[in-house]
Write a structure and sequence with these properties.
The protein is of the alpha/beta class and about 230 residues long. It contains 9 helices and 8 strands. It has one domain: P-loop containing nucleotide triphosphate hydrolases (Rossmann fold, 3-Layer(aba) Sandwich), CATH 3.40.50.300. It has a 5-stranded parallel sheet, with helices on both faces. A 3-stranded antiparallel sheet has the order 3-4-5, covered by helices on one side. β4 and β5 form a beta hairpin. The longest helix has 17 residues. It is globular and about 50 Å long. It binds 2'-deoxycytidine-5'-monophosphate. 2'-deoxycytidine-5'-monophosphate binds next to α2, α4 and α8.
């Protein structure tokens, strides 16, 4: 188990973060949220007024961005040039801009290197869009999470802080827009690795999904679910 790499990819709002953190916690593994890293780079672009739809400007500025993360599933944090931006990365402005920033090859190359360093000798659950296909193609277990778009939007709307009342239809449209952007970009698009296990969370509870993935992980390392 100490060298296992579990790659969890999937669409926006499919439950990747809650699932991945819980799986890491149950298996005693580290946890890496690669989306938070792309979000931190996006914070930097927005702070500096870079036009995120100008790939050359984004690539140029990315060279001086230092993104660091901690990997404790109980309290994962992301730092941008030394500042803790764990809350800011979740803002609507960042969510709206992150797909454009993450499509820039120079940004992906920079973060991919850092992600591979963090994977190191393994013992980690890593979530994102291109983990099973590009970042960790040799991962011992690859999961591809999906859920019906309306259900994803309902869950996302319910999670949003009170006072941020959102119409489910608008949330659904934004999730679909991001999926289309993420899965049609030329570099490392969102796609299921051919050897991934598809897990549809539409009608499952978080506990059920976590149990399923933990069972698969134990099987992969040769430990039966009951022993
Ligand atoms: O998982 P998330 O919603 O925090 O991810 C934010 C964005 O970052 C997502 O829309 C696409 C990008 N991303 C990516 O391109 N590759 C990854 N491995 C993780 C995220």
């Amino acid at each position: 188990m100490s060298s296992l790499v579990v790659a969890i990819d999937g669409t926006a709002g499919s439950g990747k973060s809650s699932t991945s953190r819980a799986v890491a916690d149950r298996l005693g593994l580290r946890y890496l949220d690669t989306g938070a890293m792309y979000r931190a780079v996006t914070v930097r672009m927005l702070r500096e007024g870079v036009d995120v739809d100008d790939p050359d400007a984004v690539a140029d500025r990315a060279a001086s961005v230092d993104v660091r993360v901690t990997t404790d599933p109980a309290d994962p944090r992301v730092f941008l040039n030394g500042d803790d931006v764990s809350v800011e990365v979740r803002s609507d402005l960042v969510t709206a801009a992150v797909s454009a920033v993450s499509a820039v090859p120079a940004v992906r190359e920079l973060l991919r290197r850092r992600q591979r360093d963090l994977i190191g000798a393994g013992g980690i659950v890593i979530e994102g869009r291109d983990i099973g296909t590009v970042v960790a193609p040799d991962a011992g277990l690859k999961i591809y999470l999906t859920a019906d778009a309306e259900i994803r939007a309902r869950r996302r709307a319910a999670e949003m802080a009170t006072g941020q009342n959102r119409e489910v239809g608008a949330v659904e449209a934004a999730l679909i827009r991001r999926d289309v952007h993420d899965s049609t970009r030329p570099t490392a698009p969102l796609s299921a690795a051919s050897d991934s296990v598809p897990v549809d969370t539409t009608y499952a509870t978080l506990d059920e999904v976590v149990d399923e993935i933990v069972g698969l992980a134990l099987d992969r390392v040769g430990v039966g679910a009951d022993g």
